[in-house]
Every structure is written in structure tokens, then in C-alpha cells.
Amino acid sequence: MSKQSANLTLLQHGCRGSLAVLCVLVLTACGSSTPRQAAVAEPVTVSAPKVSGAVPAAASVEAAEPQGRRARRSEREAAELAVKAAGVGAASEPIPEAALARYDRALAAIRGEDWLEAELELEQLTVEYPAYSGPHVNLALVYRHDGRRDDAQAELERALAIDPGHAAANNQLGILLREQGRFDEAERAYRRALATDPTHALAHYNLAVLLDIYLRRTAEALEHYETYQSSLAEPNEIVGRWIIDLRRRVGNGDAARVAQEAGK
Amino acid sequence: MTASLAVAYVESGNSAKAASEFERIADGDGPVEVKREALWRSAELYAGTGQSVAAATAYARFVERYPQPVSESIEARQRLVELADAAGNQAERTRWLRDLVAADAAAGAERTDRTRYLAAKSQLELATPTRDAFLGTRLVVPLDKSLAAKQSRMEEALAAYGRAADYGVAEVTTAANYEIAELYHALSKDLYASERPPELNGEELEQYGILLEEQAFPFEEEAIELHETNAARTVEGIYDQWVQKSLAALVELLPGRYAKSEIGESFVEAIR
Fold it and tell me: Are A167 and A203 in contact (CB under 8 A)?
């Protein structure tokens, strides 16, 4: 516990001219003499890099998407379209036309930010076809958008009961758990996402944030920021700055100091 | 006789009459233990029926008559704090907060986790006016005078929050550490924004501003360091509102390091 007193010392000393008033002010803060590094003092306005792991829809996403994945996704989408057209799912059971049609309407509603419409379609789908994970995950996203976190979490857990390794569901669950301060569980969720899909860029990114800010395991955080960054078609400038900052801190053991102080 | 009457009133739902019957028992000549219990029940019943003044009188009498056991005596003070708070009586509230802190400090071996918790919370409350006095002290010309006044108020606030943190009660410690960090933060901001001497011209004003920045900077540094220590409690799994507030402060103070938020999928394409 720091109890430094504000050591405000007013010193009168050799004052000249009309700036005399300046000279009365000499302030020192004890216990804080380290100048802040320019790299981190910079007032950076950070907007979260616009990336979406499973969404090829938004234009801004395209640029940030891993190239390899994008190509693979296009192939997969083509295959899925063919499958949809044939009315047959990837699994053994064919997906009913009505379910696909409703699902498409729900996704269109999400794209158009018509949250009420999306919610109604998805709720209906989860009732009629409870064994499909996709509607549960998307419904969770819609609930989260509405600030209904508990409902969102319940839907994610339903999706994970169907498909425990579902990458997007685990990634989303990780975020919700982190927000509740359940950091260890959040880490496990992100790692489950990565176990299913080691190239899941957002899970790398979110795990990095968790390790960086909340668990203060800087070296591990750095690895995941780097993995995320290298998966992007074009490196994200802000994340690039974070990486430089973390490399420097990993180098001088700063993270260990902060963690140790917290433990006192 | 009157004891069974009191119980009968309670059972019939007539709390107001029961309260005064219990008070009569408390003031009667029965065994001490019975009188003590009756006084507590009358206080509770008065409070429960909205008779705040009578409730406060009864609790205050309880504190006066029954210093032992300390834990109950401190609990009565806590009720008095709450009653004064509800009545908007700041002087009374402050008096009982101080009294509670003193009673816990003097309790020796009778201190419990609960009495320490209540005392720590009370000490935290007692620090609030010292913080507000510091925040309310404006830095005006002549700066040496106003700064001296602000400095002495900061010392008082630091001491008050320091005492709260010293209890080692987790949620009070994180609150006190947040407030201490914000005292430094406020001082640095207030220095930047302090009144400029009217006689300074353009260039002099600029120089004055630079000097102020130089003087304010170490306090911002101190604020950052203290917030970082508080924010690092997440490593131990502590993520209360104060830790979160320190993290939020760091987003402002050190955005390059702390303005990092998660990104989720917008939606998933696959139905299964």
C-alpha cells in the first residue's frame, strides 16, 4: 500500500523580472522519478481492430482477414452453398429447407442490424431445431447486443453442449467470462477455441488481451498478439505498437514487478 | 407479564406497541441479559415501523449501557450510522462513524472480521469529506498560497485513505487505493488547469504553462503507478468496482497500454 505524501515544496529562490511568480512553484512527488516512456505516453486513440473471425460480410473485415483463411473460407462457402442448394447438410442429416431459409433471414437481419427481427427468427429456430449450434451462438450475439449477458451466456452454453469445441462460441464465452472477472475460465474458453481452430485470429487476440491486461503474463500475451498480427493480410498499426511495447517490457521484466507488487 | 405482552404484540403484528413494551422491559428491573435483549428488539421494532428517532434513541442507549459484547455494541453503532444517513443528518452520521472506528480499535481481542470490516468501511466513509475538501480547493493566484492549502488538504485525505487501506479488508483497500491514486491524478490535472497570473504576457504565459506541466507530470506518474498496482489485483482474481475503475482510469492515463478491448464475431455463418 503506497502512502507517499504529496511532497509539495514551495521554494522561494532567485527570481527575476516579471516571471517571479514562476519561481515559487517547485513541486516534487516523492517515489516517482522515472520519466514515462515516450512510447506509452503517446495519447493513442485506439479503436479495436475491425476483424471478425467468421464474418466475410463487412467490407472492413476483408482487409484484416488472414489471406489463407479467406481463401479457404471462400472454398468452404462455395461448398456450403452447393450443399444448401442440394438441401443436404455437411453432417449426415440433411438440414431442412425451412430451417435454412429462416437462418438466412436471421443472418440478413443481423447484417441489417434489425436486432428484433434477428432475435425472433433465431428464437424460433432454437425452438424448432435445438440441435443446431449456429442459431444458439447468433442468438447469444443478439442478446449481448441488447445487454442481456446472462441470456447470452446461456445460449453459448447451449451451443457448447452441442459442440464443445465450437470456436466462435468459446471465443464469445471467453469475453463474457472475462467481463465477469472469471479470468481463468476465460483463458480456458479461448484455449478451447484455439484447440478447435489454431488459426482463429480473434481467439489469439482476445487471449492476448486477457494475458496482457488481466493476468499480466506479458510474455505469453506477446506471443498471441504476434500470432494475431501475422495472421492479418496487413498488419494492424495499433497492435504493432502494442507488440513493440510488450517486447520492451518482456525484456526488462516490468510485468514481473507489477505482478509482484500486486501480490504484496 | 409485560414480556409476554410484548411477544403477543409481535405475534399479532402490532410492532409499534411491541416496541414500546420491549422498551419498558429494557428499562425495568429484570435480569441484565433480558433487558439487553429487550432493548435491542425495541430498537429493531422501532426501526422496522419507521420510528427512526425512537430507534436511534434505543440503539444509542444500547451503546451506552452495554459496551460488552463489543461485536453487538459495534453493530448498534452501524445501525446508528445507517439511521443518521437515512435522516440526512451528516453530523450525527460522522459522529457514529468515528465512534465505530474507535470502538473497534479499542476492542483488542474481541475484534472480529465483522467489526474490522465495519470499521474499515466507516474509515473509508470518513475519508470522503477530506477528499472533497481537497478537490474543492481551487488553485488560484497567488499560487503559493492556494497550493499550500491544497497540499495540506491532500495530506489529510491521503492519511484518511491510508488508514482505511491499513485494515486489509480487500474491498476497502482497493477503494482506498483507487481514491489515493485519484488524489494524485486530480492534483496533476488541477495544476495544469490552475489560474494564470494576470500580469503575464504571451510568451511568459507559455513558459509558465510549460513549468506547470513539468511540475504536474510527476503527480500523474504517481497516479499511474498507484492505479497500476490496484489494477494488478486482477492477478489474484480481485475484480471489484474499484479495480475496474483503476483500469478505466488507466485507459485514460495510459491508453497505449490499457485501451485494449476484446473483439467478438459479428455472427457465425454455419448453422451447425
Answer: yes
CB atoms within 10 A of CB B135: 17
Superfamily of domain covering B1-111 = Tetratricopeptide repeat domain (1.25.40.10)
Give me A52's grid cell: 471478425
Q: A29 pLDDT band (50/70/90 cuts)?
A: very low
The reported pTM is 0.77
Q: How far is Cα A203 from Cα A200, in angstroms, rounded to an integer?
A: 6
Number of Cβ atoms within 10 Å of the Cβ of B173: 23
Interchain proximity A241–B260, CB inside 8 Å: no
Give residue limits of the domains in chain B.
1-111, 120-255
Could you report the predicted ipTM of this complex, rounded to two decimals? 0.85
Contact residues on chain B for A186, CB-CB shorter than 8 A: none
Q: How far apart (Å, rounded) are the C-alpha atoms in residues B193 and B222? A: 18
Name which of A31-40, B42-51, B79-88 the model is least confident about.
Answer: A31-40
CA nearest to A90 within chain B: B272
Half-sphere exposure of B143 (CA within 13 A, CB side): 26
- Cβ-based contacts of B200 with chain A (< 8 Å): 18-19, 21
